[in-house]
Design brief:
mainly beta, Immunoglobulin-like, 5 domains, 5-stranded mixed β-sheet, 4-stranded antiparallel β-sheet, 2 helices
Length: 491
Amino acid sequence: MLKLREVEMKRIPGYNLDIIVCAVIVTGWCIFPVTAVLCDGPPQSQSFIVFSGGCDRSSQGLPCSQGFMFPAQPSVGGDFPTQYSLDFGDGSPPYYGPVDGVTHTYNSSGLITLKFMAGTQCDLWRSNIFMMNIPAPVNYSPAIPACVPLQPSAGFTGNPTSGAAPLTVQFTSTSGGANAYTWSFGDDGSSPAQNPLHTYRTPGIYSVSLEARDTCSGTVNRVSMNNFVTVTTPATTFSVTSNPPGAAVFIDNVIRGRTPLTLTDTAIGDHRITITMDGYEEYTRNIIVEAATPLTIAAVLIKSVPQPTPQPPPNGSIAITSIPSGAEVYIDGGQRGIAPAIFPEILPGNHQVTISSKGYNDWSHIVSVGSGQMAAINAELQATQEITGLLAVITDPPGADIFIDGDFKGVSPVTISGLSAGPHTVLLTLQEYVNTSSNISVTAGQTQKYSRDLQKVFKPSAIDLLLATGAIVMIGVIAVVVMFRKDPKTR
């Protein structure tokens, strides 16, 4: 398991820090819970995080170890990612597993293309690439490639290949000369696993294909089997009775008949049943129809009691004035007019009132309106002002890590925005250079330039150490001679 030392987020906008906190504090990696909306789509987005101090930061000996994290966001409906893949780009077999992080050892330098992927439990995937440069160490001689090129031959089996939905099929690759795989299941699902387990949830006939790849040579062989999997509709008996009988039965708001009623064509999954009869209260509940599992609903209807129709309370109003006048008025997000004005027919309760005018900060408050009453607002808008500035940081040499008031802000050269006006502390750090700290003051609405020449850390050579040792010995000899002359008794 990869240990987190210092996380550097590079060239990946919009990363989610909460995911990183989860990875550090909870279990070492984030494994997501059961999906909210099954099979609605792939993960919305995915980040790629390179751990600092690895192969890509500075020249060092090879082989070197590099850590990666590639967390992903759930699908639009909340279906969380449950499986991940990473092609390391150096000819070695890709990573595939349930956690969103891995370490890898590189044996040679150069520009590496990494392909990272995240998929849901329904085998719906999102993929992207990341370019990483591994510098060559001093006096580096390229190593002989460790991998041996092979000629892949694709083949696979599946079991079972027919049955009622939902049908789970265990696919097994019989390919030779391959260490990377791309499956296409025919239902928009795919997988990079060698032997994936895939569930077909909709009846139909599906063709399956497999691409077997040798990552050393990049050679690909593909095999397809048409009409390989047959998924049938399960036969489920669904019986509905009521007391008294003769009530109308609705499944998902569609009338299906009157009680007693037996259905055999209700789709597998979640449904809502409603049973109605004049003079009786409506009976409604959520049900789950499972494959080949009989389901019986016996509803006891309760006579309804006529209820008097409640009268809605009278509406209220809001009177609004503004300084300056002519500001736009929004009530609960809707544009209602220009102040000063009285806005009638406001429902009793709390409402969000926003007053906006160009060149002024918005005035926004929650206003309580009583039944049949008028709420009065006198809003005095404040002119907008710049409250932040920018800092352009340049160092010689470039590449220094920049910390503002202890927070990492980027690598020089860079222009940092959104700094509050006033004093700040700037710290510059770069390997083999002395840390430099300065106090600066940021002016609102302006860009301040901050440039520094970094000083190398002094490392004495072996000759310097020898000369220093000789000087210390000479000083000791002189001290003994002086003592001898001052004190005749020592002769």
